[in-house]
TrEMBL record, chain A:
SUPFAM superfamilies: Metallo-dependent hydrolases. This is TatD family hydrolase. The keyword Repeat does not apply. It comes from Streptomyces polyasparticus. Belongs to the metallo-dependent hydrolases superfamily.
TrEMBL record, chain B:
Residues 207-259 are annotated as: Disordered. Residues 207-225, 237-259 have a biased composition (Low complexity). It comes from the Bacteria. It comes from Streptomyces polyasparticus. This is EboA domain-containing protein.
Amino acid sequence: MRIFDPHIHMTSRTTDDYEAMYAAGVRAVVEPAFWLGQPRTSPSSFYDYFDSLLGWEPFRAAQYGIAHHCTIALNPKEANDPRCTPVLDQLPRYLVKDNVVAVGEIGYDSMTPAEDTALAAQLQMAADAELPALVHTPHRDKLAGLHRTIDVVRESALPLDRVLLDHLNETTVKDAKDAGCWLGFSVYPDTKMDEDRMVALLKEYGPEKVLVNSAADWGKSDPLKTRKVGDAMLAADFTEDQVDQVLWRNPLAFYGLSGRLDLDVADTDATHEGNSILRGGE
Amino acid sequence: MTRTPSLAALRAGLETALDPDARAWLDQSLTEAADHKADSGQGPVPTWELRFAQAGRRCGPEHADDARLLLLHAARADTATLTRLYEQGTAAERRAVLRTLDHLVPGPEALGLTEDALRTNDTSLVAAAVGPYGAEHLGAHAWRHAVLKCLFTGVSVDEVAALADRARGDAELARMLGDFARERTAAGRPVPADLQRVLALTEVSAETSAETCTETSVETSAVEAPGASSTEPLTRAGAPTEPPSEAAPAASAASPQES
């Protein structure tokens, strides 16, 4: 089973996770820029974080045979902090980087005017950079947030079929599908979706344009949830081809809209062993 | 070992390797770079700098380094520009900047970039940092630590420019290598095969040719015979067929869920 996790925050994960993910079949990941649990207080903290997503993290992933790409954005939560909003001005220079395959995570957290501004501005940046967008749907007041998100996308220069609406569930999937967006589901141990509910939604709505992710981060989460969904699909009589569509081909097709996916991870450099993760001497 | 092929050779190699679309893109980008006016870095990003960022997806990752190096040359990038591109660059862009320093910066004024790269643990950056520019300008202490870092991180010492010249007669480097070998042996771990090679080079006097140095016997008892395996590559590619068991339970069921 080959797996492309289209949303996982590897910066928060250990090398044990990379090893287990590879063993489970994960060969490619996309790491969206988001918040870090601890709010940041200056733009420079974002730039160091973005640089890590474009430097150290893909290097780390390659040690384990996993291709790593990222999405870059000012996240909705921190878009509310005026100390952080200067990041918006610097985003265009990051969006041209080879490894950036979408603008994201953007969207709503508390549905404030500042979030409106950041969302609209970044949808325009996605259109300008010819990138798709990864749009987070809010945890609180979710259905209203989804409707407002779709309205803002409709008014933007970015077509709805270049938008992945993420963290969907039973209450939001139909409207997202009817709008023509790509459909993202985060499968978590306790919150968001679980494997069995995911299988039920796949039966009802089909596998077209559906992406399943672990969204694993620094909270209670599981980087192997993608594999567990694949196993649950097979147990529910989905075919291997349908599993491959959901866990590999759909994420490939969505992020492939960027024209920048490069899934070769033969080595970071053929001339060396590339094991500095071992911190020397291990 | 030595990089620094001529620009003409680099260009000719790319002309042969690239497909027609990529070749046309490179030709136009090099023209834009050559025509650009010097800028302060304050205004909008110059077009050629955008091309510099896009080289991987336009020319393919395997040709990106060479394409970027040609662009930096064509633009006659000065130290301020190189520094900005490095600081705002991905790992691949930073590597390209490091590789071009010996071509474009005559003095030690860009040494800060080399030192920055040597602080990372990204082996591709470390390898680029020990190229000709580092060989020319790194001080003795920093250079020795760079060599040791290559041994630590598995970067082949073939990447270290002017290795034989700088190592020759360096008793302090020899001491550091011997101590490292003893530390590895005490831990029951193999000594990197490259360590033997470098140690041999340090024992060569100025009169001895580089060819004979490989025959020099090494008396450091802790150093294992040539052929001892270098540090093991990390687990990869040996894909187990079964998924691993469940991850360990999290410490707290009440951890926040905002992602």
